[in-house]
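User: What would this chain look like folded?
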Amino acid sequence: MDEDGNLQIINSNYNGGEEEADPENNTMNQPLLKRHRTLSSTPLALVGTKVSHIESLDYEINENDLFKHDWRSRSKAQVLQYIFAKWTLAFLVGLLTGLIATLINLAVENIAGYKLLAVGHYIAQDRYVTGLLVFTGANLGLTLVATVLVVVFAPTAAGPGIPEIKAYLNGIDTPNMFGATTMIVKIVGSIGAVAAGLDLGKEGPLVHIGSCIASLLGQGGPDNHRIKWRWLRYFNNDRDRRDLITCGSASGVCAAFRSPVGGVLFALEEVATWWRSALLWRTFFSTAVVVVVLRAFIEICNSGKCGLFGKGGLIMFDVSHVEVRYHAVDIIPVTLIGVIGGILGSLYNHLLHKVLRLYNLINQKGKIHKVLLSLSVSLFTSLCLYGLPFLAECKPCNPSIDEACPTNGRSGNFKQFNCPNGYYNDLATLFLTTNDDAVRNVFSSNTPNEFGMVSLWIYFGLYCILGLITFGIATPSGLFLPIILMGSAYGRMLGTVMGPYTKIDQGLYAVLGAASLMAGSMRMTVSLCVIFLELTNNLLLLPITMFVLLIAKTVGDSFNLSIYEIILHLKGLPFLEANPEPWMRNLTVGELGDAKPPVVTLRGVEKVANIVDALRNTTHNAFPVLDGDATELHGLILRAHLVKVLKKRWFLSEKRRTEDWEVREKFTPVELAEREDNFDDVAITSSEMQMYVDLHPLTNTTPYTVVQSMSVAKALVLFRSVGLRHLLIVPKIQASGMSPVIGILTRQDLRAYNILQAFPHLDKHKSGKLR
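Assistant: Here's the prediction, encoded as structure tokens.
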């Protein structure tokens, strides 16, 4: 992203058609490697004519002398204090996420509720034009507030934030994504955008908000006002911050759907690259705290102390009272729902990709164009939501139903709108309400004739259009609810068609349709299954829900990538996939290292002038440290540590090794964990240039290395699984006088596109998957 937060598109990673297939199978004996150009390891994402600097994160433990001494000298009390602090932060992440989620829900329900009550008042008096002006004006005002906040104060608050969280947990530094300003704008912007009736949800923003809370707690507050407590400084490193943000993302999903297990599985399946059992327990603890907070506020709101909160806000589409019965013949419509979900989900991803590219061109013209685009979408949405119900025929109320009919309030399953007494407008029931209530209405059970087929088609068509044009505007937005709205529509339609031939309720067909479209677009299965079970509170749905999700994901995977992967590619974030391309097994890391510029190395005791020269003339974030006559690898030193040495002027007048006490007197392990690589404000005198620095105490003596004959595919799996930033290539046999390091692999070097730029002949051996 650029400094304005525009969605920048990288054209190399997403192709619209089938890739060329090689007529013959490749073997290792063929001359596969015809080098075309030098492989660049510069961390840049080329985006059109713009260049975006991409930094990686240091998830690897830096085992230098300081770290080893600190680890050995820690008392049992200090270790217990560190563990207690991690659990305390996990508790605070869950507590604050639950409180903010409650605040957002209360604000949305009350703002949207009073807006709908005012509109209903004018409609009851047959003042339809006045009602339209109030409805449209309120929506435009709320959209304007949300958009201006995003455009002016926090461009990174636009969108769901989930792709950027996924990239961060993969090892990519996403600047300004987790700041205090971003979080505040995300909260207020979500309230405005959702209350404005736009076709977007607050689920994605809640995931981002939970991650922001976790990041701010871990670093002690905003960048300019950090708390410098000693115990909190232990968390000021990428590794612990990653764990906290994982807890925050799970808490966000839990807060959105009141689904603690689903939140944990979402973090595991969708966003986290690295996982372990200790993190599982802390994540589950955070989501449990969220559920307790939400449950407490639900009890308070049920007593009527939350204004117009009612049954909305905290999404809970309870269908536990519905008797779920299905037979072998129901496998046919259930399978059809899964296939439709996979096809429509992949089609939605493809069309949304085109829309986002178009919006990128509009947003690049400036901030005014971003605001105008958001207001145009809001105006179109308001006109459709208010005007289309006039096309529906009034339907008589069913006296056998216990629920009030018709209604003119904020919510209700039978909106009167323009109909006479005793009749209701089914389109108004779906459109003139909040998105949460719209889903609750279409999920309603034991109401087989509530919605007409024409109304369902209009509902489905409109939300397909709104789902495409709304996502991508400069407001906080989530994808979960728009996809649920679309999927529930065709699920309900299929249930209406199958009515005489199936035992499954139409409301359950709507639930299955929503699940299938989410699996077809997002390609999640396990977490989605649990989320829907906790959402609907009906365990009997488990078998058919699993069946639908598996079919939808399989069908969708045969066409294109998931929606979040497409957004990652569009933003130019160098995300490393779990599975390497098949042709990567035909390329060795040694051949990849040969295509790079010569590696820059430093000696164990190095002259200050050489260190300054290396920092000035390169952008490398680490340098191999050699001993002896440059024939022995001592380890790897980070650029940030070299900058810290220069700033502290830890220089020696003679070329010698330092004692342990000397380095511990100048540096602390916590201090070295902080990122500080700004070399511009370091001034070195000419006399200091001739002095020396002993790099041994600050060098990571156990860097990950691979032998030059290892395949790129295997190196990629190692790099991603361990969460590395640098991977050293060493020779298989080190000849006399030969350097012990052939090269360094970074994230950019292992990306398929960058490799193909250096070895274009490999392009013929790519897999033929539609991207």
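The CA atoms of residues 2 and 245 lie 23 Å apart. If you want, I can go into more detail on any region.
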